[in-house]
Design a protein that fits this description.
Layout: H1 27-34, E1 41-42, H2 58-69, H3 83-93, E2 100-103, H4 106-117, E3 123-126, H5 132-140, E4 144-146, E5 157-160, H6 174-187, E6 190-194, H7 210-213, E7 218-223, E8 235-238, H8 241-255, H9 260-271, H10 274-300, E9 306-307, E10 315-319, H11 326-335, E11 338-339, E12 341-342, E13 355-359, H12 365-382
Parallel strand pairs: 1-11, 3-4, 3-5, 5-6, 6-7
Antiparallel strand pairs: 2-8, 7-8, 9-10, 10-13, 12-13
Helix pairs in contact: 2-9, 4-5, 4-8, 10-12
Bound molecules: pyridoxal-5'-phosphate.
Residues 46, 105-107, 131, 133, 161, 166, 194, 196, 223, 225, 230, 235 line the site of pyridoxal-5'-phosphate.
Length: 383
Amino acid sequence: MYIFVFLQPMDYQKLFSADVPSFMRSPVREIFRKVDLSAICSFAGGYPSADTFPLSSIPALARTVLDKYGSKALQYGATQGVPELRKLIASRYGVPVERVQITTSSQQGIDVCSRVLLNPGDSVMAHSPVYLGALQSFRSYRASVREISPDGPAPKFIYVIPDFNNPTGETMSLEQREELVAIARLHDCLIVEDSPYRELRYSGESVTPIMELAPERTLHLGSFSKVFAPGFRIGWIIGPEPVLEQIYICKQSLDLCPPVMDQYMAAEFLGSGELDRNLEHTLSEYRSRRDLMLSLLEKYMPSGVSWTHPEGGLFLWLTLPENIDTVALYDKALSRGVAYVAGSFFYPDGSHRNTMRMNFSYVPIEKMEGGISLLADIIANDL
Ligand SMILES: Cc1ncc(COP(=O)(O)O)c(C=O)c1O
């Protein structure tokens, strides 16, 4: 039996660290707290389609891992990650195993790079609009975010998502990547190349990753979230050894080691060739969804609305006439059963209120036409 005795009201605020006021709530995650996603047509989140998860293979995969590794799979593991997975990633990307650190997914990759590199008052350069999870991390270390430029004081690092950017879906050309490397060399700073969507290409030609153009100054972040399942929280950093060494020390206090069973499952999935077989199915599923969304936008959107044509990833980006405010429009859309993310949330200064991010991986194919025609109607009524 518990007896609750409140002796004295406590002032918790005064105990929080000086970093806490810089913590930023994600408006995207707030949407998920309030809304039952299955009850509406949600183009809001970045969720992969559950149809791409290798659900039926998981029991056999777990069985194989337990037969192969026994209790080792349930034990604490090395902070750098289990050697089997590190070796497989090193050989897939053609780098020495010493340059691979496993992370508890790529969000931790962003955060641990920020933690090792940023002091309060430092700056990070990034293109706007920028991935919200990265913005949250940079701000939590009290760093400021500036546009990428050869001018002004040197940042600690430049953050980019060169392949199928979240939120716009756009891909940087080789020339743009070379220009970025030149800017990083000028500032003598690092580049954080966040690359969780790189394997999700549906059309066009693959572009050289930045880590190959400037291996001495690039921290390349990868993830199993979009090619296996995000419930397994496994990602990796490929980078210069002196930086990885600091990340390794820092990670000891963060989580001791990445989840061991998850790592062995990922290693088995990758090493057996099943990841690549499953990826073929994922690519064809997402290619159809992207093509369908593009054709529905063409069919239903009123004139004055334009959008990006991504070659991969999970998102595209809409620009509406200047007078439309997608933040104000959001509640109306939600009450009629359709959700998106207002584009201004991805701008550090909250500008560009006439834009929105649309995800095409989550809504089932058969619901997409209803959702896009509804959204087009809501926009047309607001013009
Ligand atoms: C650009 C980008 N980086 C990182 C992440 C984090 O992914 P995870 O931690 O699941 O690897 C996401 C998630 O959607 C993302 O869009």
